[in-house]
Amino acid sequence: MSPPLLDEIRALIAAEGPLPVSRYMALALGHPRHGYYMTRDPLGAAGDFTTAPEISQMFGELIGLWAVATWQQMGAPSAVRLIELGPGRGTLMADALRAARLLPAFGAAARVHLVETSPVLRARQAETLKDSGADLAWHGALEEVPEGPALVLANEFFDALPIDQFVWSGSAWHERRVGLDAEGRLAFGLDPAPSRSAAAFAAGRPDPAPGDILEHMVEGPARALARRLATEGGAALVIDYGHDARETGGAYGDTLQAMARHRFVDPLAEPGAADLTAHVDFASLASLARAAGARAFGPLGQGAFLARLGLFERAQSLMRNASEEVAAGIAAAVRRLAGDREGEMGSLFKVLALAHSDLETPPAFDGP
Q1: Minimal CA–CA distance to 23: which of 157, 178, 214?
Q2: Interval 185-198: pLDDT, tens
Q3: Residue 187: which residues within 8 A CB-CB, separation 6 or more?
Q4: Residues near 42 by Cβ (< 8 Å), separated by ≥ 6?
């Protein structure tokens, strides 16, 4: 028996033709009845993947201290929106708020806003944060958060935003689409007509070779975030896995992937039953922010960022009076968060800060 969403997508393709990759991703992740994030809690050992806040409390605590220090740089406004995009189970926010209690004035100023579309995860967030003492509000999009200076946290948010893909034929870019093969299975194909928009997305990159794939993130959420910071004030911290085109020379390639039960699976096999993500192009994200009037800092590798915030010192403090078993667990968490080996997040994950034009260089970053 086919998954319900697979049948709906087949019918949609039969009626309208092959879908852009971005539309396929949006349906697979956000369909109101059968979308991946609408129907489950995907995190943890029993789910499909594990994020940094679930690995160790140290991650969220350091992010909380970063938020406090940045708030002070902003002039310590008496009211600030503490916003998290895609808050998962609420673990990062809970740990951040606990660390932020070191400065009671920040807790008094902060109003917590959680941007979340999943009813399942909203329920988990409410349970996690019920004893935080914070003033909580939920929204379906950043644009719904009330005006005012903001500190925005986005950990593994942008990787789940839909992307479009284009393939270079040797003379033109053609959009990659999701259609049906002869047996009625979902399959990738190309729009025969050259794309009118891809050339602009490829501007500034090296000349492509036949078969190269160009990826372009749907820009709406990034533009909304940058406009918010540029007009209302504040800063944002974007933490995700991805690349910086300034380092990679253009970063052509297919990074669309699906994860289920902690294993990579075919992105087209079971829409709605697997997490779909793509690597974040941090250079493009920074460029969008600057075009909207915000400043961009970084990206830094996650390992370097956490080290600058005091990860190793915090770990040593926790290990000082811990049992041998607990100390080993803390050391393992540090390696996973900041190490550079396979399966570790220190280099693969990067951190970008965005800020209002008047804000000083945020903590842990160098100049823009």
Answers
A1: 178
A2: 999 999 999 999 99
A3: 178, 179, 180, 181, 268
A4: 36, 48, 49, 275
Q: What token pair was written down for 163?
A: 């992307």
- The residue type at 146: P
**CA-to-CA separations, 327 to 56, 118, 263, 309, in angstroms, rounded:** 12, 36, 29, 20
Query: What pTM was computed for the model?
Result: 0.93
- Which residue, 302, 323, 310, 367, is CA-closest to 52? 302
Angle at 206 between CA 203 and CA 207, to 5 degrees: 95
Strand partners, 294: none
In whole angstroms, give the CA distance from residue 365 to residue 295. Answer: 12
The DSSP letter of residue 143 is G
Closest CA to 254 of 270, 240, 243: 243
Do residues 72 and 133 make contact, with C-beta atoms less than 8 angstroms apart? Answer: no
Tell me the CATH number of domain 4-164+217-311+344-355, given options 3.40.50.1220, 3.40.190.10, 2.60.40.3080, 3.40.50.150: 3.40.50.150
What pLDDT score does 367 carry? 74
